[in-house]
User: Fold these one by one.
Assistant:
Number 1:
Amino acid sequence: MRALINQPDLLFLDEPTSGLDPVHAKKLKQLILNKKAEGKTILITTHHMQTAEEICDRVAFIVDGRVALIDSPRALKVQKGKRHVKVEYRSRRQLETAQFDLDQIGSSPEFLNLIKEHPVETIHSQEASLEDIFIDVTGRRLS
């Protein structure tokens, strides 16, 4: 990248992974993370929420020229998510799904019984994705 030739302390990147295959996008993201670890400040514009989540300390959603929301990706996902856990498990060879409230899950007899009695395939918290947050904050909907 020519932008790195003079070793800048501040770097502006516009859609840095756009048009790259997954291997080269990963290499570029690692380069960005290395520069960040060196103490460089990097401002990125992107519509690719996974990229933002992987490399950004903070994200800002801009609506009509104004910052509508700004925080760390993790904080936003936790704040905007649901406090539930979704469990996929096998019962009589059928894939079943159950949902449990995250608060006090360790003392939930139903949850504890399920994980003792059935083979669990996946457990997922229900935090919001940055994509969901973007859609909510901007008021734009998928067509």
Number 2:
Amino acid sequence: MQGSGSAVLRDSVLARNNVQVRGHGDRTLVFAHGFGCDQNMWRFVAPAFESRYRIVLFDYVGCGRSDLGAFDAGRYDRLDGYAQDLLDVCDALDLQQATLIGHSVSAMIGVLAAVREPARFAELVMIGPSPRYLNDPPHYVGGFEREDLEGLLELMEHNYLGWAGALAPMVMGDTAGPGLTAELEHSFCSTDPVAARLFARATFYADNRADLARLDVPTLILQVSDDALAPVGVGEFMQRALPGSELHVLQGHGHCPHMSQPGETVAVLDDYLRRRHGGQA
């Protein structure tokens, strides 16, 4: 970006998505949060890399401390709108060959972004990814029947607090402890309900399986052995769909290992980045 107009646009994007930049290093790690969350969910993992990497954290529009006034239902009714948020942040910071670490739906958002602008990303790290949450028998098991998802989204529509209370323990897992589960429930409740409902539908009804064949970026897939939202079989499907990708399965419970198992998550990321970046990590 050049000139005063570009500087204004840059500052607008950084404010809109509550972009935070910290750390030191020639390489950049971009951390992208999952549905119903915000950048604070990375606080147990991101600091481990600040001494060696430039760290970029942000909130999607409608989440965290983003500018809710920028929310546009026409843009954010599909994952492409969130992929544009990510690319806008990369453009505002002039990022090339960054590492994207995306949790849950941000893994697929990262796929969409990397297909559109592959030079932005040197590699993708996907934590708990799923290209399709709905089962598609006989060859694909995403983990949910359509009626189950419809019931969950109907509860969200009519009893938002009840939905948050039901979903948070499922996502966090039964061994994470009440504090983290309560934090996730609070995060769900703090998200604007209109934006959250649209994001939920965009997330849970998406089918990005065909997009995997278009991705040409090295990828690490990090799954948890007992994850109610993204079974290990989904990770195995993705590894087959992404030649040359790596699959690492953490033994544990829940969909948020960067919160419930941060030490192990950091160790896996550290090993992968060392091998990718010649020992820098």
